[in-house]
């Protein structure tokens, strides 16, 4: 159990013995939770032995689907083929569709809840010139998701951000697509900190003005919308928008900095959740949500409070590299046999960043097998030093 680590923030500093301070969390009670709807956006596991071309990744389907069963067993829904799965960042549409089909089939075997990302990422941006091109692309992916048996998460579109010239263009595309769906969708407003190509979404860089344009679309198609996930890392804006939503439309927080207080809510309401951070903190989040079901707010806060520094670290700028930390922690916790990622994204964070992540995960009681985590941390440090 002997582990030597440098001081926080300086990977070249003198090494000191590090003793774990956290304890593995108890297993949540069977049955999940009921007071909030919670989806975890799940990562994918690369098969490095069969991936001979970085541009054509091969997934380890057994490990990828086993992790989804882990999330379902804790009571979470799975948000499939989203940015946490490196969608549009190495995971292309054909592979995403195979992932969706396999995950939906797996969900049926264990009564798991699942919703799946549909977007326009199969388009070549330079060849997209009209809104009709974008409508056709969205339609193709939505039809494929629903044909597989999944609920649609309508992902933000880089192509739409490139082509649209006004808020009315966004409204035309969204209303047209929503009208075609068999069941209500979850909208996803992803901020530029997650994807710089989405700057100015809804027709303006002014977030409050953009919120009003988005709300107009939601009000026009409320019967076709289950909810909206916003990933803007702005808790006040989320609360303001949550209070303005039509009855029956959920706010799914995508705020990986402030999810604890947004899910807890206030006297005027609360947010449900669709979060990438639920992938690595699932055991703590499941216990916290069960405590919320029982009316034990103190226990809810106690469980989630130490996960916030971890999440803010994982999602630190550049935020879009957060997937690296999520997969690193999955490896430390034994959910996969290697620390390799689609498109080589395991190199997107520094050695110092990942050492600090290890310490924060320990402080949050999220190292489920301490001996394994230490063994793998030693492997990581040795490889980095080589």
Helix/strand layout:
Elements: E1 4-6, E2 15-17, E3 38-41, H1 61-73, E4 77-80, H2 93-109, E5 114-118, H3 131-148, E6 151-154, H4 158-163, H5 167-180, E7 185-190, H6 207-220, E8 225-231, H7 235-244, E9 250-253, H8 259-264, E10 272-275, H9 278-293, H10 297-304, H11 307-314, H12 322-332, H13 351-363, H14 370-385
Parallel strand pairs: 3-4, 3-10, 4-5, 5-6, 6-7, 7-8, 8-9, 9-10
Antiparallel strand pairs: 1-2
3D architecture notes:
- With 386 residues, the protein is of the alpha/beta class.
- It has a single domain (30-316, 340-345), classed as TIM Barrel (Alpha-Beta Barrel), CATH 3.20.20.
- Helix content is 44%, strand content 11%.
- The protein is built from 14 helices and ten strands.
- It has helices at 61-73, 93-109, 131-148, 158-163, 167-180, 207-220, 235-244, 259-264, 278-293, 297-304, 307-314, 322-332, 351-363, 370-385; strands spanning 4-6, 15-17, 38-41, 77-80, 114-118, 151-154, 185-190, 225-231, 250-253, 272-275.
- The strands form two sheets. Strands 3-4-5-6-7-8-9-10 form an eight-stranded parallel beta barrel, surrounded by five helices. A two-stranded antiparallel ribbon has the order 1-2.
- Strand 4, helix 2 (93-109) and strand 5 form a beta-alpha-beta unit.
- The longest helix is centred in the middle third of the chain and has 18 residues, at 131-148.
- It is globular.
- The two termini are 22 Å apart.
């Amino acid at each position: 159990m002997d582990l030597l680590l440098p001081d926080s923030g300086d990977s070249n500093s003198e090494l000191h013995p590090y003793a774990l301070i956290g304890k593995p969390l108890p297993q949540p009670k069977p049955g999940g939770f009921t007071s909030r709807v919670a989806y975890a956006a799940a990562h994918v596991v690369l098969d490095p032995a069969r991936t001979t071309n970085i541009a054509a990744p091969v997934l380890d389907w057994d490990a990828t689907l086993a992790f989804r069963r882990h999330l379902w067993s804790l009571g979470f829904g799975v948000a499939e083929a989203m940015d946490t799965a490196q969608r549009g960042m190495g995971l292309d549409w054909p592979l995403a569709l195979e992932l969706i089909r396999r995950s939906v089939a797996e969900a049926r075997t264990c009564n798991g809840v699942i919703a799946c990302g549909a977007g326009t990422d199969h388009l070549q941006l330079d060849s997209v010139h009209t809104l009709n091109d974008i409508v056709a692309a969205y339609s193709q992916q939505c039809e494929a998701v629903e044909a597989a048996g999944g609920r649609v998460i309508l992902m933000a579109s880089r192509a739409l951000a490139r082509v649209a010239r006004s808020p009315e263009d966004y409204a035309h595309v969204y209303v047209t697509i929503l009208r075609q769906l068999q069941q209500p969708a979850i909208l996803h407003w992803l901020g530029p900190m997650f994807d710089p190509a989405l700057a100015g979404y809804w027709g303006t860089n002014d977030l409050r003005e953009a919120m009003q344009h988005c709300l107009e679309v939601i009000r026009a198609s409320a019967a076709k919308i289950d909810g909206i996930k916003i990933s803007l890392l702005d808790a006040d804006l989320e609360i303001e928008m949550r209070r303005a939503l039509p009855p029956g439309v959920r706010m799914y927080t995508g705020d990986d900095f402030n999810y604890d207080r947004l899910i807890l809510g206030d006297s005027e309401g609360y947010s449900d959740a669709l979060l990438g951070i639920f992938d690595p903190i699932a055991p703590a989040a499941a216990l916290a949500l069960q405590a919320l079901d029982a009316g034990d707010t103190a226990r809810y806060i106690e469980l989630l409070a130490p996960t916030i520094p971890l999440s803010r670290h994982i999602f630190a700028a550049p935020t879009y590299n957060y997937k690296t930390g999520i997969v690193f922690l999955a490896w430390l916790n034994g959910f996969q046999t290697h620390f390799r990622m689609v498109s080589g994204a395991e190199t997107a964070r520094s050695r110092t960043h990942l050492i600090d992540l290890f310490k924060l995960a320990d402080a949050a009681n999220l190292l489920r097998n301490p001996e394994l985590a230490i063994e793998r941390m030693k492997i990581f440090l040795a490889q980095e030093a080589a």
